[in-house]
Structures are given as C-alpha cells and as structure tokens.
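pasting for the record
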Amino acid sequence: MRLVSSLLLISVISCGTAEGDPHSNNGIPPVGGKDKRIRDVADPGIEGHAGLVKTTQPVSGALVVAVDEFDETQNGKSAGTIYVQDLDAMDPETKQPRPYSGITLFAPTFNPGNLAVSPGDVLDLRGQYTESATIGSTVTFAPGSVLPQISQPVATFRYETKVPDPVDIDAADLADFAKGRRWLGMLVRIKNVTLLADAVNDSKGSGRLAVNLSEGTGGNCQTPFPKPASLTNDLFDVDKLGLKKGTTLKSITGVVGFFCNLKLAPRSKADLQQ
C-alpha cells in the first residue's frame, strides 16, 4: 500500500499540480535559431544598428573566406587577419548577394584552443561588434567611413565546407565608401580592369603594394570619399606576377578590405585573370 501511495505522489508531482513545479512553456523555438548573421549586425541600415556598436553579439554560420598569412611587410605586423562572410551570403532564391554579409575578426580566440582556421571553416562567434573611425592616435579615417570588426570573439569550429564562388560587383562601388561598405570582408569579383600603374612593391621598402583601380588620387587618409580603391598584396605576393601599367585584366577576384581607402586583395595568381 505504501508503494502505491508513493507512486501516486510521484505521478501528481510530475504532472505539475500544486505539489510540484508548474510546466514551463517558452513557445516553439525559432526554426533558424537565435544567433545572428553578420549582416544582422553590420548593416548600418537596420533598425537599432547604432545600439549594437560596442556590444557583445552572437553570430553563427560565419564562413572563413581568407586568412592572411602572407605578411608583406616581413615584420610580423601585417599578417593574421581573418575574413569571414555569412554562410548564406548569396540568396538561394534570387541568386543575388546579400550586402553587409562580411567582416574581419580582431584578436579571436578559438574553441578548440589549438584550432588553426583555414578557408572553408564554418565558425560560431561571440564577440564585441566595433566600428573604428580611427586607428591608434595617428590615423583618422575620412568622414563617414569606419572599419567594422568583431573584436576578440570566441570562435567555435562547427564544420568544414567549400569556399563559395565570388559575387560579382561593380568596380565603381569600391570608390564610394557607402557603396563599397556593403562588400567589406566578402569575396568578390570585378571585371575588365586596366591597371593604372605597374603592380610593384612600395619603393620606400615597406613591402606593400597598392595600385589604384580607377582614376583619381586618394589624398591622405582623411580625404573624403570618393577616392580610388586599390589592388593590394595583403594576401599574396602580387609583385612576382610582373603586372605592368596598361595591363587589362578580364577579372580580379579578392577580398574587400579597408584602411583609409577600400582595397581588393586577391588570394593567389588564379584570382587575376588576363
């Protein structure tokens, strides 16, 4: 008899009567999960965007499209940037790119801790979203331009897939910060580009290469946009290709970056099609 009474008591409690805790009902979890995509944080046009700056944000489905291992200055200070874009940066229905789907990571840590990320790795991120208008105390960007990043994120490895094809954009977008910002951190392709100078390293010996992709002068860092975007050697040794002024390239594929002006960094020789 005591055994039956005990079983009845357990049954009553588990059903959530006054003798036990009530059932919780938080509703049906969202099909897509609760984390954000990069574009849900980096798009300056979304409602409440300003309030996201300097706040910790959870981002999932961030696909690594490039890792800077080149170190063009050969001093250890120009390598390490990781470029990521949304796993679904291309709309599967419209076949059109989703703007603001890319970003760079600043000082990430990894889970597992010994992870060495490579293009194609898919990460979940949790870090502070930042928009820097200056770098240190000596560099101030042009009015209205900022460097968006996810700062000091914890990056958790999920799985590996293939790097997507680049998205085709208008080369003129990269001369205008507001237009070019849409593609920051993303793998893109521009077509029919004629080099306006020899693609050679800086004559001052810095190791950097920057060739304007359109007419005009960039002035100094604070010069307002529009100003020419640059072909750079951020990710590999473009100089060794011996590209000369007047060379017309069928296409240049690369990752869009920003420092004073917008820049396009090809990953290898295959990214420059003559």
